[in-house]
Amino acid sequence: MFSEFMISRFLPTTARGRVRLACVLTVASSLALVVACEKVPLLAPSGSTITLISSATTLPVNGTTTIIAQVLEASGSAPHSGTDVTFTTTLGTIQPSEVSTDTGGRAIVTFNAGNASGTAVISALSGGASVSSANAVKILVGTAAVGRVFVNANPVLVPATGGSSTVSATVLDINGNALPSALVTFSTTSGTLSTGAVTSDINGVARTILTTFASATVTASVGAQGATGGGTTPPATGTPTPTPVASSGTASGSVTVALAAAATLVITPPTTPPSAGLPATFTFAVTAAASNGSAIKNVSVNWGDGAPTQDLGAITGTVPVSHIYQKAGTFFIQAVMTDVSGNVTNINSSVSVVPVANPTILITPSVPATSGGAFTTVTFQLQVTPPAGVGILDAIIIFGDGQSNDLGGLSGSTSVSHGYDAGHRGQITVTVTVMDTLGRTTSGTASINVP
Prior knowledge:
The protein has 5 domains: 3-41; 49-135, Immunoglobulin-like (Sandwich); 146-257, Immunoglobulins (Immunoglobulin-like); 264-353, Immunoglobulin-like, CATH 2.60.40; 360-450, Immunoglobulins (Immunoglobulin-like, Sandwich), CATH 2.60.40.10. A hairpin with an 8-residue loop joins strand 22 (241-242) and strand 23 (251-259). It has strands spanning 3-10, 19-27, 33-41, 49-54, 58-59, 64-72, 84-89, 93-95, 98-100, 106-112, 118-126, 129-130, 137-141, 146-154, 157-158, 163-173, 183-188, 192-193, 197-199, 205-212, 216-222, 241-242, 251-259, 264-268, 279-287, 296-302, 310-313, 317-324, 329-339, 344-353, 360-366, 375-385, 392-398, 404-408, 412-421, 426-436, 441-450. The relative contact order is 0.08. The chain is mainly β. Strands 5, 7, 9, 11, 12 and 13 form a 6-stranded mixed sheet that branches. Strands 15, 17, 19, 21, 22 and 23 form a 6-stranded mixed sheet that branches. The protein has a 4-stranded antiparallel sheet with strand order 4-6-10-8, with no helix packed on it. It is built from no helices and 37 strands.
């Protein structure tokens, strides 16, 4: 006849946790003792609960986060430290997959998302306690976590002849955080892209370069192709429009890069032919484009007379500009207008410049009929008239007897008297010489007969 007795006790914590030693004592009729023992893992007792806590709800591919399993007995107290908890996941890995609780009943592991996108469902169990599917931790990984995609272009306007723009897609997860390592697929309605698929960087940004000769709408998609999550109308020029969050882990956004329309430039010469050496005023009229216009960057003018090219700057509207042609002739004007989008507009005009008339000088003498004795006094009425825009710097009257008088900057009329001595009688020539602001010297003369 045999009799059996169960003996159990806890052993110290091992590398895998605290274990219980269970032994069976068998007593034979001969009073011989037979003892059989095995190590049994320490598990949560019946009625216990497990609550999972994750420090993240979304992760990029290959991202990691901490998972905590809180084990409580039915009484609400923590079980014996060293209680074994086993973790499972539908995506990625958990390290370690089995771990023992601390004195507070917590088992802590690390979840690694791996390199595949999807939803990781993480659960845990210990003895009769486990996490229900409703309470399992769900972590969206990679593109499964995408919430929105914002798309911008720089610049949003390219020249009318075509150009390039850098298109940037910023990928955010459902919590509004940057989502790195997400594959972004770009497409365009016109032109070409430097690359059609780009992985977002650490800031969640993916970039491509659009080259186009027509207005183009570029769309950036994350997740299943063509997913719109509700859809939107293509945005106005340069206005990024994110698509609402899609339940399937897809999102897209778009931006339109348009052709910049060039402004028009008209050059109007003076209504009357300008004179050489005098300022001539030209009118430069810039009219902005009705739509998709771009700000003027600079207007440069080559006046066609060998003078250095003149930069007028970012002019708008109607602006008067003066230039002095130093000599007469016909000159061809070339203007180049550039805007900030790179449009270049060339405008030509011409102007005929005429010589400047010399000042007119009138000398009207008043000579007495008879000699006045030792001196005969003659009165001269002087009239100096310069052309418009020209000034007189100096005027000198030379009386013809070796004497002269400086009249200064005479412009208009004045009267001058001079007495001729007995040695200067008969026919005498009087000269008035003026120097004008153009550096020219002009003379007028009159002959008198001194009695």
